Every structure is written in C-alpha cells, then in structure tokens.
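Inputs:
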Amino acid sequence: MGYSFSREGFDAVLKALARTYRIYAPVTFAGQGRFTDVDVVRYDFVTDASQIEFGKKSEYAFKELLTPLSETLFYFTEDEVKEADAQPGEVLVFLRSCDLHALKRLDQMYLGNGFAEDPFYKRIREKLQFVLIGCPASFENCFCTSMGTNRTEDGYLFSVEEQDGKILCEVPSNLKLKQLFMENGAWIEKALPSFVEENDVRVTIPATVPNSIYKAPLWDEYTARCIGCGRCNFVCPTCTCYTMQDIYYTDNGRVGERRRVAASCMVDGYTNVAGGGEYRRTKGERMRFKVLHKIYDFRRRFAYDMCVGCGRCDDACPEYISFSNIINKVDQFVKEEKADE
Amino acid sequence: MSDVNIKKLKKNAFRYSKVRGETASRIRIPGGLVSAKSMARIAEVAETYGNGTIFVTNRQGVEIPGIAMEDMDNVNRMIQSIIDDSGVNQEERDKGYPASGTRNVVACPGSRLCPFACYDTTEFARKMDKAIFPNNLHVKVAFTGCSNDCAKVRMNDFGIIGMTEPQYDPSRCVSCEQCVKYCGLRSVGALSMVNGKVVRDTDKCIGCGVCAYYCPTRAWTRSREHYFRLVLLGRTGKKNPRMAEDFIKWSDEESIMKIVKNAYAYVEEYIDRNAVEGKEHIGYIVDRTGFDEFLKWIMEGVELPEIAQINPRPYWGGKHYDKY
C-alpha cells in the first residue's frame, strides 16, 4: 500500500515520527568536506525532513551509529567500573538497499560470529528500525547489481522516494503508520521503491581463489600508490574492525575510561604486535588482505560476500584507487592461474 | 612618430621599450584567471600589431612586445574585449587601461583548483582590483590560498594568506594520528596526542588546513569562516629588498579591504613629492613616518573579528645595500 506526500505532508509525518523515534539520516554538512567550500554527506540525527539528503550517496555509511568511530564502553575508578549509558529511545534509520544488506554483515560480525554477542552493539541494534530510500538510478562507482544487494524485499518499516516533487512511501505492514500516513498524504495504488537494475561498474567475483594470489604481482602497484589513509575502511558500511584504548585521565591517573575506536587494516600499526612485529608491512599486502576479506575470506566462513558494492571506497580514495577494479584484477589472475594448470 | 608623451604612454599601460619607436602592451589579469577567449585575443594582438611573441610576466599579466607606437590606439581598441571580460575598471571605452601604477593583483589558483587553498583567491583578488584600480600609486597586492605562499605574497606591499580555523570533533577521532604526522611533515607540528585524542597548540597553528585535508573521518573540518593572515610591506629593489612581515593573524575579508584602501590615503599624505616618476614603495614611506603613524591611518574604521591577533611592532630585516 502506498502514499503520496507533498514536502509539507512528509515533513508532518517525520515530525510525528520524531515523537517516537530519533531519526538518523544522510545529511549534507556544508563546507565540511576535505577541501575548502566542499560539502560532505554523512549521517546525523535530524528533526526535519528538509535536513535529509535524498539525492546523494552518503560518503560515510550509517554504521557510525552502530559502531561509533569512538565509543566509551565504561569508566573505571580504583575499584569500581561503570558502564557507559546507552543512548535512550528507538531510532529510525534512513538508508539505501546496499546499506540494508550491509546491516546483515554487521549483525553477522557482532552478533553471529562465534559464541559471544557484542553487548554494546546489541544494545544499540535492538532499538533500530529502518526506512528504505529508493534508488531510481545508480550513483558513480556503485556495483550493487554485481553484489546482489541492489534489491531489498523486507527489513524496513516503509520506503521513501522522491518523484516529480512528491514523496512516495510504500508501507508493507504496520497499521499505526498507515493511519499517520493517511492523515498527511494521499493513498495511491503503488509507491514501490525503485531499485537499481544496472550499474556502469560491474565486477566478477571468482568462486575460489588459489593460494598463489598471496604472492601475485598485482598487489605491488598498491604498495606504491596507496598512502594508507584508511578512508576506504572508514567509509565502508561493512568494515567492523576496532581497537581498544584504556585512557587514564591526566589530572587523576587512577581514574579513566575504556574506549573502542574504529580501526583500519590499511592504516599503519594495524598489524603491530608486542615485540615490534608487523605482519602486513607493505600497502600491497594490506590491500590483498582487505580485498580477499571482502570478496572471499568472509564468504568461506559465512557463505556470502562481505562487500555490498556501494562503491564508497572508490568515491573516497584520494589516490583514485578503485576497489572494483581490483576485484576484476583478482578474477583475471584466477582465470589465468586456472588456464596454466 | 617623434613626439610621444612617454608619461602618458606609461600611464596607459604601455611600456617604454629600448627599441626606439616600439612599445609593449601590458594586459592586466587580476586574480590570474583569464578566459580562453581573452587569451586568444591576446595572441591576436601579438600577431596583428606585435612581433608574434608574448611575455608572461611575474605578476600574472602579459606584455605584448614589438608594437609600433603609432598602433597604440588600434591596440587599445583591440584589447577592449579583454578589459570587458576581466571586469577591470576603465574610464573611457576603447582607450585601454587608465593607469599602471597600482599593479596587477596577483593570486594563486586558490580553492577553485587547489586542494590546499583556504579560500577563492581569484574572487578576492578581483574584488580588490575593483576597489583599488585605477590608481597611479605604486601598490602591489597579492593573494595566496594557504601558507605555502605559492603566489609569493611576501614580496608585496600587502600579502594575503588564506587560513582556516581547524574544527575538531573528538567523537569522530579514531587516533589514526595522520593529522599529527602530516602537520609535522607538511606544516608546523602544532598537533599532539593526549589520551588518544588530538590537542592543537593554537599559538603554533598557522591555519593551513593540513589536518582537515588528511583527516579520514571528518573529525577535523574547516571553519565556516575564511580567515586571512595579512603580511605587510615586502618589496624587491635596489636599496632594501625584504620579505613582508606578519601583521594580522586571523583577519576577515572586510578588514583587509579597508586596510588596503586606507593605505592609499596614507600614501597620498606622506609620499615623497620628489620621488622619481611619483613612485615610492610604501615601505620606504613607513620607514620615514614610523610604523605607528601608518598603523593609525590603515586601521581607521577597521573592526577585526575577536579571534584576530595583531602584531603592533613588525620588524623588517632584509638587505640594506643603501646603508654601507
């Protein structure tokens, strides 16, 4: 069942929803990009529909809500520990199909990877509901159709899409919402969200990858090109690595907090171990690890690929390194290895 | 053509050439950005009235040499479209440039092109040119996007260096330390890590924006306001060449416009009336009147933003070839 809204009508819906939920959506931050007078689109809490950026791919993913870039887990004094308070209330997250698929990967890593669930992840995750933003067209660098993440059938409260100045919403179920929508908009037969059916970028993922990939010369290029900034990881909706920090307050060294902060397998120090060892010294080695994790190693454990093909890593790389291009290079290498057998 | 008013010729932005009877047309390109169409017209002038060559000058103008003095009127008509296109103030159409004393306003490519630039240098330079040209006083103003000073603004009377006030959101910081590393390598080393977060030494920070450029998470971003460092009274020349010295750190655009305009009134008042060709670098005038008098004039009506830091006692060094 679908509804059509004017901008004002949709804003009224959003304001009503904001009484129940905190609303988390892509927002354009003017002038906060890397360069002067360049904007950045990233997630934030909004109170007004006009704050939501529907027309662009967010440069940073919604995962910052679930796995904050920097999160205090608990505070400690000499003999006491106090867990950091959880953020109150339910949250409604606006995201696209690829990101809803990414959510499955995040859940897998934090709730379904071995025997333990991550309680700090879980307490945020339990309060999330989702709104699917339709994609009438592919953005630059997207390769969701190759990764099978272009379509989403369920897992969201309602969908939203802008068409000819109208906001269209499809509500699969939920009677309460239907009432709210009816009050502020008009019922229409179909308001199904658009899904991308074709991308300019296509990748082929090899079914298996031989161990010879480890020393393949294709990685050498990235030792020279990559600067190890980690943007590809920080913008990725499926990267889940973090590192721990125990902080002792400077004015009282017996009191402090434990934080976890996002980590990147491309940034210096990621594989450093006690005694000065460093397992992946070159950027090429780090690239190999990252790429294979996204398109092969994760699948060997969980039977589906980690990468969702959102292309944010390609959008963000300051050195114009293309992840999708590397996937195809790996595929080419695998085909050549097979031909040699 | 034996009777030519050379003073008038120079004022009309033609050059006194060592080749008798010849001159060169000096085209102003404020902000250093010229349309391809005007560039083609410059080439056309060089082909039609010049000798087919073009000097690209240090101040981002061009000089078209090999022009016969009797062709100056024709050249002035031909460069009208360039003057229109560049938006340079003019007094009479088809008569060329009305002055040459105040030099072309220089700018590095700035934020229209350069990833390090902290503001649109071209726009500011054009705005400045509009405000100070035409004028016969010998004044040099230059704009550069960041502290790299690619435009060499410290060789000018007024040098404007772009700044941004870094904004830090610790909740987005993951302690990757790239800002600390690159501030040290590419800038002044104003950042350090304390308990996994970054501390900025605000006295040391020069507002170059390297932290915002390298931050991979947008923990560091640029300030909404664009700020400027204003450096004063640099010069080249035979007597006492010297670099411009810091005057204001964290100035705003409006204050800089006012200060430069105020300086013209000061020069009118104190310039050596016997200066050769009416040309005297402002710095020499200030050397005579003392900096306090200069300060009094240029700060008339200027209201700096709260963040601004003023250096009331700049000291210039440089070579003193005229002293001993």
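The first strand of chain A starts at residue 2 and ends at 5. Flag for discussion at group meeting.
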